[in-house]
Amino acid sequence: MRHLLIVVLLAGCATGPQLVWRNDSKPGSAFYADNGECLQQAFAAIPDASPATQPAPAVVIGGAPRGTSRAFMDGWNSTEAALEADRKQAARNQIHRGCLAGRGWRIEQQ
User: Fold this and answer.
1) Residue 49 main-chain phi, psi, to 5 deg
2) Where are the domains positioned within the chain?
3) Whole-structure pTM over 0.90, yes or no?
């Protein structure tokens, strides 16, 4: 019985309130068009780096400093590259949300 109570409590924690976009002057189906246009605007303002512009992952055949792997220091495995991708995505999200808000959409709990 004790295990069932824990499972029920954990299941209740997993299902929190759902957030949805609402607009008083547009039907819900209009969200898809506005959302698509706002996503295009966000990616136009802050484009993704294409794989062609990023350095290729390093392939080391001998010569790497002892105890290191250049694959963790260069190319797509770089921590700085991952942090930059996160910064770009956060900025895109802000542009996207601002664009939708400018079109009258707001986030509400369902």
Assistant:
1) -75, 130
2) 20-109
3) no
